[in-house]
Write a sequence for this structure.
């Protein structure tokens, strides 16, 4: 699978491989994290979320990992498919933060056939 | 398909025009948001409505005027825009106001071009 140690703006992955998208956050008070997928011409689509009292959460073909010690969030996509090609944004917020989500810069994932 | 519906999908307007963007959700969400997104950038928060009242204005120029007629509808009125206001305008809603435990659900946006 593809692994990115630091945040990179683009990721190219072979169809069928696993993808890992990384995100660093800076606010140690953040306690809620969300991953969004944005396909071309569409709005961001909710993928999965995780609260700070958890280290790992799994969905359908996706897993989010949270490392609070180093303030790092990752999204793993199993058996990447062409339909997974999109821009992926992480977002963070904290309780009583006046409804504000802070978005990461985004990672463009391209799936090679 | 998204459960947040935005119209129109595309809009071209001159700098002297007045137009409105519309957003509708029927999920019973009590917080609604307007975001602006430039190409290859993350969404930027503009306004937040909580229980139909404006709770946040992120120092948005007055040529953008939001309105929340009821809990399901959100409008963004546009007047005397500048070419640099061209962007994708996204509407979002969340179940309850507040940052945590309530992910935002986005519409597909209105692609606005100011000429």
């Amino acid at each position: 699978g593809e692994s990115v140690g630091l945040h990179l703006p683009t990721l190219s992955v072979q169809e069928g491989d696993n993808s890992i998208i990384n995100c660093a956050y800076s606010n140690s008070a953040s306690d809620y994290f969300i991953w969004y997928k944005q396909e071309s011409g569409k709005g961001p689509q909710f993928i999965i979320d995780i609260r700070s009292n958890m280290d790992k959460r799994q969905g359908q073909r996706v897993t989010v990992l949270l490392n609070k010690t180093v303030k790092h969030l990752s999204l793993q996509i199993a058996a990447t498919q062409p339909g997974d090609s999109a821009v992926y944004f992480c977002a963070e917020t904290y309780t009583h933060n006046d409804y504000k989500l802070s978005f990461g810069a985004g990672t463009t994932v391209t799936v090679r056939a | 398909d998204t459960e947040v519906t935005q119209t129109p999908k595309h809009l071209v307007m001159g700098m002297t025009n007045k137009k409105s963007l519309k957003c509708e959700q029927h999920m019973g969400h009590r917080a609604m948001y307007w975001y602006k997104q430039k190409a290859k950038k993350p969404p930027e928060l503009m306004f937040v409505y909580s229980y139909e009242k404006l709770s946040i204005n992120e120092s948005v120029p007055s040529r953008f005027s939001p309105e929340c007629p009821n809990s399901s509808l959100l409008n963004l009125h546009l007047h005397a825009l500048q070419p640099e206001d061209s962007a994708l305008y996204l509407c979002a809603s969340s179940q309850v106001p507040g940052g945590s435990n309530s992910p935002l659900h986005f519409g597909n946006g209105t692609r606005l071009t100011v000429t």
In short: The radius of gyration of chain B is 13 Å. Residues 73 and 83 of chain B are 27 Å apart (CA to CA). The longest strand of chain B covers residues 18-25. Chain B has no helices and eleven strands.
